[in-house]
From TrEMBL, chains A, B:
Protein name, as recorded: Molybdopterin molybdenumtransferase
Co-factor requirement: Mg(2+)
Organism per entry: Mucilaginibacter limnophilus
General function of this protein: Catalyzes the insertion of molybdate into adenylated molybdopterin with the concomitant release of AMP.
MoaB/Mog domain span: 176-315
């Protein structure tokens, strides 16, 4: 039996490198960059007017001039106008390129403007005011975003600003989610009293969708021959296979045997955790990974978040981000020498602390509470008493909790 | 000029009700529920075996019996087998329906099992052990999820378990993002020295995509006639129009005038905030809303998060969630009597507190830092000195910061 940390380390050691591909910038949101994005020009690319008003040469102000003749109006996007004398000004708009002959912008609020010219009302005019100078934010050639960064809307904003139409991103793994077990029937069928509907495959598919990955789904009956034939196909077509069910010690848990016959080598079986103890992890000789999670819905859900998503991020070369923690809000007792992944709801107190309230459940099979939970709190195996006020790591299970 | 709170309140008062539609469960992730999801059966639907082992009647144990004849093997999904005598047992698997004739499950670890029968090794056997009793989690008819809940993977898990194929969800608004301004050229073009590429429309589109909304995009030149014609079309086809640029006091900021001619009534113009002061908000007589954000990329970015997304959530009837806060990590001075939306990076300390580090920027036009920021911190207008250690509200701008 492996510890949670060993299991995680082994899984991350088995990260894949699936190479890169080119996508159009319009399809790039959520993908992981595989190239540097560089500034093609200074940012801003010119001395950029930051207020609507008039542009003058400061020398005139210094000499006490307060009356200016307007010789042009220059909007953002216009080629710059130029003054020829110190008593001339240009009416100029935010975003315009500052003409070379002027160096100071006096906003509408500080002038009296008519068709012919302007009178400066304010006595406080500073040389160079209201100008966002060329290259102040970034210089041409500066690196704006690096490989491993997720293309968030803000990164996309940089990509479009520098005119990158085609972006090199990491290839996404091809994933199939395979449910097993004769006890689970299709969503569309009516279950007999001893049957239940299968939801694990759709749920895991939904988690992956929420993380930017399309996964196919497949269901296998508890028959070794059919399992072997179908999984043989999967091993040819996918980079990773997520199985749910069929890996505990039960008589009909055929998967480990079938996988062995298909040359999928077991890397570990069982992890010291609840739920999810029977988690089986293996690798085919061609490199395809098999994550075989227990069929219990909470276990499959937790294992997808705690093991598959970190593998996915490592495989995509995503820059490592810090873990999250929360303050436990109740005393909790958990005796077994296992890491306990406890469902919690998150709140934030007035000190900006995350507070975790346990969601009362009835053991590992209870997935009805999952919809009310925000995270799993990871309670270590070497303790059995967990006190209100102690801080433990959490694993977020969705993105919708805080949003205002 | 409106305060941020007034602007928000007015926008939320103008939430739309776009009605409901039916989607297949396979397309439902991320949508907002418009109906109750009820348990069609008890959860679990039967007394569910929770460990692999043998099922016996506790009466036999009570009488001191430790040797049992195996009369059947019952896997999960099998119709239940029944014993006829107290010295009989059923080898039984996790997930199976507990037969009526037995009431206790003794796991493999506590027995010595062969083809004919089993010897119980443990002296500690409790009546009813290792059984997840029928209806313990939820009763038939219980409400599992309610209108306004986002269909997270966990909610989808419930939906599929109860066999709901078609789900009633809130209709999504049809949105168009319209950039304006002659100074901005297409991403694919090479800018002249005084031009820049437009990124606002793609960036706002990307934010909406990240929030589950497809938006069309459109660019308008600074020509009143073209603007009027194109916007007249938009007012027929969309529920909301997001405009970027063209609403400050500049001579070529034609939009408010054009919108008035199209019977879009101004609800407010200008909000006491930086960036984003020239924000214009209006409503057409047919109910279409116009969010006209300033063209400055950081302002358009911030306004989309602070104003459009709350409108979207209200329009979708999403259950209100708490705001987020963080501890300011530096002293900050901001003199103007405006709310200052400061770009911050978030960290978490060992007390599970969110800590906000200002991302050094060069004023409102600097969007190069946005890619490094995690949130805007909302610093109130009635103060100008903000001290390290004080707690202020934050508006998250992407979902990728914490993920392990």
């Amino acid at each position: 039996m492996r510890t949670v940390e060993e299991a995680e380390r082994i899984i991350l050691e088995n990260k894949a490198d699936l190479g890169n591909e080119i996508v159009l910038f319009t399809e790039a949101t959520g993908r992981v960059l595989a190239e540097n994005i560089k500034a093609d020009r200074d940012m801003p690319p010119f001395n950029r007017v930051a207020m609507d008003g008039i542009a003058v040469k400061y020398e005139a102000i210094e000499k006490g001039n307060t009356v200016f003749r307007k010789i042009a109006v220059q909007a953002a996007g216009d080629a710059p106008a130029e003054i020829k004398a110190l008593d001339e000004c240009i009416e100029i708009m935010t975003g315009a390129m500052l003409p070379e002959s002027v160096d100071t912008v006096i906003p509408y609020e500080q002038i009296d403007l008519n068709e012919e010219g302007a009178v400066v009302l304010s006595s406080i005019v500073a040389k160079g005011q209201n100008i966002h100078t060329q290259g102040r934010d970034r210089k041409q050639g500066d690196i704006l975003a690096v490989p491993g960064q997720v293309i968030t809307p803000a990164v996309l904003s940089l990509i479009t600003s520098v005119g990158e139409e085609e972006i090199r991103v990491k290839k996404l793994p091809r994933v199939v989610v395979v449910s097993t077990g004769d006890e689970v029937i299709d969503v569309r069928e009516t279950p007999k009293p001893h049957q239940i509907r299968r939801s694990n495959n759709y749920t895991v598919q939904s988690i992956l969708k929420d993380n930017g990955i399309h996964a196919d789904i497949l269901h296998l009956p508890d028959e070794a021959d059919i399992m072997e034939r179908q999984l043989a196909h999967c091993l040819q077509y996918y980079d990773a296979i997520i199985l749910t069910g069929g890996v505990s010690a039960g008589k009909f848990d055929l998967l480990p045997e079938v996988l062995e016959r298909l040359f999928v080598k077991q890397i570990f079986h069982k992890v010291a955790q609840r739920p999810g103890k029977p988690f089986w992890f293996g690798k085919h000789e061609n490199g395809v990974l098999v994550f075989a999670f227990p069929g219990n819905p909470v276990a499959a859900f937790m294992c997808t978040h705690r093991y598959f998503l970190p593998w996915l991020r490592a495989t995509l070369g995503m820059i490592e981000k810090p873990a999250m923690y929360a303050v436990l809000d109740n005393d909790v007792t958990f005796k077994p020498e296992l890491v306990y992944f406890m469902q919690v709801k998150l709140l934030m107190n007035n000190k900006a602390q995350l507070i975790a309230e346990p969601v009362t459940g009835n053991g590992s099979g209870d997935f009805a509470n999952l919809a009310d939970a925000d995270a799993f709190m990871e309670l270590p195996a070497d303790k059995s008493e967990f006190k209100k006020g102690e801080v433990y790591r959490i694993i977020m299970i969705h993105r919708f909790r805080f949003h205002r």
